[in-house]
Amino acid sequence: MADDNTRISETEIAVHWHEEEYYSPPESFIQQANFRDADALRKFELDNFPDYFAEYGHLLQWDRPWDQVFDGSNPPFWKWFVGGKLNASVNCIDRHLAKNRNKTAFYFIPERPEEPKQVVTYQDLFVRVNEFAALLRDLGVKQGDRVTIHLPMVVELPVAMLACARLGAIHSVVFGGFSGQACADRIVDSESDVLITMDGYYRGGKWLSHKDKADIAVDKAKEAGHIVKHVLVFERHPGTYTSNAPLVAGRDILVNDVIQQYRGRRVEPVSMRAEDPLFLMYTSGSTGKPKGVQHSTGGYLSYATATSKNILDIQPEDVYWCMADIGWITGHSYIVYGPLSLGASSVIYEGVPSYPDANRPFSIAEELGVNIFHTSPTAIRSLRMAQNIAPQNYQYHFKLMVTVGEPIEPDVWRWYYHVIGRDEAVIVDTWWQTETGGFLCSTVPALDKMKPGSAGPGIPGIHPVIYDDEGHEIAAGSGRGGNICIRNPWHGALQTIWKDPNRFVSTYYGKYCKNPESKDWHDWPYMAGDGAMLASDGYFRILGRIDDVINVAGHRLGTKEIESAVLKLDDVAEAAVIAAHDDMKGTVPELYVSLQPGVVPSDELSARIVAAIVTEIGPIARPRKVWIVPDLPKTRSGKIMRRILASISNNKEIGDVTTLANPEVVDTIHQMVRP
Ligand code: PRX
User: Fold this and answer.
1) Confidence at residue 593, expressed as pLDDT on a 0 to 100 scale
2) In contact, 173 and 209? CB cutoff 8 Å
3) Tell me, what's the pLDDT at 20?
4) pTM, whole model, 2 decimals?
5) DSSP 3-state assignment of 670?
């Protein structure tokens, strides 16, 4: 992996920013925290692996207890809570009904301030999930089937997920902002017979028609040889279908029309083995094809629950708001599964946080009494840059705030702490990934001091390590960066990549497996794909991806996916995507292309290139700039040197280019980009 295109060389440059600046949690927080016993941390030492994870398993309600916490006999296909049986929807809903049926599960806040909020109690959720599960069952959905859900941020999204879980069907949620083509790719790979969508939704003050994407997805899936049998269409305003896309007879079903027949219906939850998959979530990797990350029922759910309890410190009386989209892993683990499993009250906000103005988050926090606030560095940066924000005019108190998804600059961290958190909220900087199911590195909020810009140590039960490219451990405090890996298995980790176990093994275990024949988990560290540094205090600072993945506003995009979208245009000869620094979004894609002989650069062509990306993936992958250049810098073996292009875009030292096959082109490109 460490060829000239990786950013490992950049990560090796030590960045010492305010290395020793610490902040302590306030005494009032410590007194009330779920995890406040420092002695309890000792239980989680590596010598006690895997037994310490039993405690996490006990947070769930099991139909049948497990016989064995961990089965490592077939590395790296670990099995957890073997023999145990449970249902995820029962754990997220039914088990709370006896005591908390009237407690709010979700507050749904529509983007338009004039539209009233919806309060969904655990009893309401129970009713809606059962009715929808009954409908799915009548359409033939059964245990093990895959169901693709392409919905915006509405309550119908967790309802659909939990209805699948009740039936033992595997949901595959596609982020609402992805295009119809991207949805089709995921439908085909997962072989879903049912697609769940919505007519449209509000975002950024506009009505966005969404059902059109379902039509594209079904058509494109058909072209690829897969037939979607049913498209279930929710209406944003039930009873009023609003979309340019007409309903297709025999295929599309308006949920609101048929659900009347299911009023009061109950569905017996299917008792699943702990190891049965709960869901797939497609994410970007080093190839042009997103991979279906497969998460288990028992292992994943107990990990999301335990981390929500220990790190987010969610307690029964808290009101919790995570601003992520449920279409990404953060929303799965920390809006749906973790908080519901703990019986919490949380917020689903439909739209953009700056609508109608940048004070919206504070007005929502004030109205609902939100006291745990979960967001990303990009959102924090955009609040910081916004005109007229006045958190001081709103009455709210955050006991804990979360940052996730990208490295946060210490400066931005401090602003978050002082201005949004009012010097009273504890911040957890949580580092993790789609594949890991839940947090890996973070401070334990009542026990560890905070250090701006550093995620913290491994959370209880997680033992990270940094390796250099040769597999040697890099010592704490050495100031050198390397690949962050996890020494031990944990039960939130992906089970495999859907239909591609070889890719699973090679991507996460290929580089650092000490002995492929070994049956000992010690020989199989998990490689995350991030560069990181370990300070002498045991805190990890995450430096960014070392592979062909870029992180735009906390959203993960594959450079190869974007490049393959562009290469579908006949006029384009070669394409290279790089991560360019952006003050707001951390990084954004910039695209360099060379054209086929005889093709003349034009604005029209650049626009077509951008349109191809938006159609194939979605607006989040839109490049900030398309540079049409005479040729791309290449090694003598023909490898495109993206690192050089990134240095030009980011105005950094380019280094020696004399060994390139075409060194002269570097100058030409430099002249174009930085005249
Ligand atoms: O590079 C790391 C970055 O986001 C990547 C994972 O992206 P995704 O699978 O979409 O999941 C995002 C939400 C967990 C990681 O490989 N990342 C995530 N959290 C942090 C982070 N980088 C720095 N600090 C974080 N707290």
Assistant:
1) 97
2) no
3) 65
4) 0.95
5) helix
**Residues lining ligand 1, Cβ inside 6 A:** 283, 328-330, 404-407, 429-434, 455, 528-530, 542, 544-545, 551, 556
DSSP structure class, residue 51: G
Residue 4 pLDDT: 39
> Quick check: 461 and 438 in contact, CB under 8 A?
no
The 3-state secondary structure of 334-401, one letter per residue: HHHHHHHHCCCEEEEECCCCCCCCCCHHHHHHHHHCCCEEEECHHHHHHHHHCCCCCHHHCCCCCCEE
- The string of pLDDT tens digits covering residues 247-268 is 999 999 999 999 999 999 999 9
Nearest alpha carbon to residue 329 among 163, 487, 136, 171: 171
Give the CA radius of gyration of the chain: 24
Nearest CA to ligand 1 atom 15: 433
- Structure tokens given for 266: 């109950």
Task: Give the span between the Cα atoms of 453 and 480, in whole angstroms.
Answer: 16
- Pair of tokens at residue 78: 């670990």
Q: How far apart are CA 71 and CA 534, in angstroms?
A: 30
Regions of the chain with pLDDT less than 70:
1-20
Q: Report yes or no: 627 and 593 within 8 Å, Cβ to Cβ.
A: yes
Angle at CA 186, nearest 5°, toward 180 and 187?
85
Note the pLDDT of residue 2.
Answer: 34
- Alpha-carbon distance of 181 to 146, in angstroms, equals 18
Dig out the tokens for 287 from the structure.
């190839």
d(CA 621, CA 626): 12
Residues 6+ apart with CB under 8 A from 179: 213, 216, 614, 615, 616, 617, 618
Q: What letters, b where the CB count within 10 A reaches 16 and e where it falls short, cover 268-307?
A: ebbebbbbbbbbbbbbbbbebbbbbbbbbbbbbbbbbbbb
530: helix, coil or strand? strand
Q: 471: closest CA among 526, 514, 518?
A: 514
d(CA 245, CA 202): 17
Q: Whose CA is nearest to atom 11 of ligand 1?
A: 433
Q: Which of 413, 433, 497 for a ligand 1 pocket mutation test, highest count of atoms within 8 Å of Cβ? A: 433
Report helix, strand or coil for 41.
helix
pLDDT value at position 658?
Answer: 86
**Nearest-angstrom CA–CA distance, 421 and 401:** 7
Single-letter amino acid code for the residue at 64: R
DSSP for residue 162: H
- Written as one letter, the residue type at 635 is T
| The residue to which tokens 């949620």 are assigned | 173
CA 554–ligand 1 middle distance (angstroms): 7
Distance of CA 150 to the CA centre of its chain: 15
> For residue 388, how far is its CA from the centre of ligand 1 (angstroms)?
30
Q: Strand 372-375 and strand 319-322: pairing?
A: parallel
Going by DSSP bridges, is the β-strand pair 549-552/555-558 parallel, antiparallel, or unpaired?
A: antiparallel
Closest residue CA from atom 5 of ligand 1: 433
